[in-house]
From TrEMBL:
Name recorded for this polypeptide: Biotin transport system ATP-binding protein
GO cellular component: ATP-binding cassette (ABC) transporter complex
Gene3D superfamilies: P-loop containing nucleotide triphosphate hydrolases
Keyword Phosphoprotein among UniProt keywords: no
Signal peptide: none
Source species of the chain: Aliiruegeria lutimaris
Region (Disordered): 30-51
Homology family: Belongs to the ABC transporter superfamily.
Pfam families (UniProt xref): ABC_tran
InterPro entries: AAA+_ATPase, ABC_transporter-like_ATP-bd, ABC_transpr_CbiO/EcfA_su, ECF_ABC_transporter_ATP-bd, P-loop_NTPase
Residue span(s) of domain ABC transporter: 56-282
């Protein structure tokens, strides 16, 4: 079952990642973090120390959509902080992202994120894992940027004032304070993508699935986001066609026809993947184009 716009599904709650108390004091325009749980501090000082052995676990997952098998026999246990997913168009990467976040219930098999059955236990799932969709129009539902960012925070149980302050803080972090009242309709596609990314990151989830997070973003914005993502504590599962954005990743999974084709150390898998894609390129990707 595919869902349409699912804002709450990009709402991995702070509580689930140990953020019991994060308050912002608004004082003369200055917003400062004044309290964090000990657990959160511990996580900030060394995410790997508190990381459970399996953050995401898929067992024998099978999925057909509209009568066509899309994912088959998928067994994956992810515990690394940085996991890339690559594969050709239509290989099943975005579907896998939706399965991981519980947005699509599988036909058979199990999907757990930090011990939560994400398709069944939706309440816990939205506290545990967030997703940045490939297409921002699948994510955005509010007319203004500030409202869009505040909505997820409200879903976490924050007061209107707190949500607004945190939304502003997120905009400030990305140098986009002037966007708060901006109508989303007036943004370019790349700018909308940035809004979605800011909305997910503002929620500080334990696991974030990024489906082509840099689509449509210009080079400086991409680079500053890349640096920002590199510093984040949560587990990142990053789907991309731009293999350079997986620089420094620990593990890469190459999906083909809904199956794991290759899975291992990032450098090795990417070398093989690039070599295979270059071979495909010399065969003109099957388009039969004229010389
Ligand atoms: N709702 C659906 N109903 C039927 N088929 C679907 C549906 N959603 C996706 N598919 C099919 O599943 C396959 C995998 O799609 P998916 O979007 O997961 O691929 P992808 O690897 O993310 O591709 P891309 O790199 O182009 O984004 C495709 O053949 C697609 O046509």
């Amino acid at each position: 079952m595919l869902h349409g716009k699912q804002p709450s599904l990009c709402i991995p709650m702070l509580a689930a990642c140990g953020w019991k108390s994060l308050r912002l004091r608004v004082n003369g325009g200055q917003r400062r973090e004044v309290a964090k749980s000990n657990k959160a501090k511990k996580r900030m000082s060394g995410a790997s120390q508190t990381r459970p052995s399996a953050v995401v676990r898929l067992s024998n997952v099978e999925l057909a959509l509209a009568g066509t098998r899309i994912l088959s026999g998928l067994d994956l246990t992810l515990s690394e902080r940085r996991v890339g997913i690559v594969g050709r168009n239509g290989s099943g990467k975005s579907t896998l992202a939706r399965v991981m976040t519980g947005l699509i219930a599988v036909d058979s098999g199990e999907v757990e994120v930090m011990g939560v059955d994400v398709a069944r236990d939706r309440k816990q799932a939205i506290r545990t894992i967030g997703i940045l969709f490939q297409n921002p129009d699948h994510q955005i539902i509010f007319p203004t940027v500030g409202e869009e960012l505040a909505f997820g925070l409200r879903q976490q149980g924050r007061s209107k004032k707190e949500a607004r302050a945190l939304a502003r803080a997120a905009l400030e972090r990305f140098g986009r304070s002037e966007w708060e009242e901006r109508s989303i309709e007036t943004l370019s596609q790349g700018q909308k993508h940035l809004v979605c990314l800011m909305a997910v990151l503002a929620l500080e989830p334990a696991v974030i699935v990024l489906d082509e997070p840099f689509t449509g973003l210009d080079i400086p914005t991409t680079r500053s986001l890349q640096r920002y993502l590199d510093r984040l504590a949560p587990t990142l599962v990053h789907i991309t066609h731009d293999v350079s954005s997986l620089d420094g990743y620990e593990r890469v999974i190459w999906i083909e026809a809904g199956k794991v084709h290759r899975d291992g150390a990032a450098g090795e898998v990417l070398d093989e993947y690039l070599a295979a894609m270059t071979r495909e390129d010399t065969a003109d990707a099957g388009f039969g184009l004229p010389d």
